[in-house]
Amino acid sequence: MKIACCLILLSTAAAAQTVAKPPNLQDIMAARNYGMAGAYRALGYGAEAINGNPAALSLFKRYTLELSGAYDIQNTWGYGGISISDSITNEIAAGVNYQMATLGTGDSRRIAYLTTAASAYPLSQSFHIGMAIRHQVITGEGSTNSMTMSAGLIFRPWEALCLSVSGHNLIGVWSQDVPRYFSFGISSLLGGQFTPTVELRADFNQPAQARVAFSGGMEWLIADTFPVRVGYSYDQMAGTQHVGFGLGYFTEGSGIDLSYRHEINGTQGKLLALTIKIQFN
Known about the structure:
By secondary structure, this protein is mainly beta. The protein is 6% helix and 55% strand. Strand 1 (63-72) and strand 2 (77-86) form a beta hairpin.
């Protein structure tokens, strides 16, 4: 209850904002997440939890090092980043990442430098809470040098089901690239091979014009080594629709992911993403 009250108080402190035309900071993800069309906050398998739902950092015990990058060959924007997380050394899991991205074209061109630190604590085997602080320096349209935060809760009643709730950009920032939004996600593990996941994001910055985004994805793990992914997203906030496809290879948690995301309206974006992951249990 206290966590919910804190989220509400922080969110009401942030003023209404205009969301940047795509791409924006919400488009920055690891390769696995592009393949599943952005439905990833209830998964918590890799360091994507640092920027997703930070509570997912403590779901699995491991050290993780990730190198990720993506490039849209149609709209000529992309990003590169490095992430490190540790959920073994202490009961409080922690992670940090750094990303640099170029966004937009022409007069809307901007460069973003993002540094995020996150931590999570397992209240029990079923409940995990987390918080992340991000410093962003954005040059160009909507420039800012500021800090914001996100917070989340993971509820896993049993191993095969995970529920995610998180609030993002809860500290108001006067930049169109840093809007406040909330996310609700569900993922499951079926037969040890299939991982369906769905996610709903909601923007209540202007209550009379509340907007949502829906993402759904599926991962099929073949022979415990080769993940195949597919997903679809409809984003009312940005006015976009995407389909995603992905392949991967991993052994003992380490491996490589490659994904392609295609925009089926708007600017017809064509994005390729690569993530190299090293994990130790």
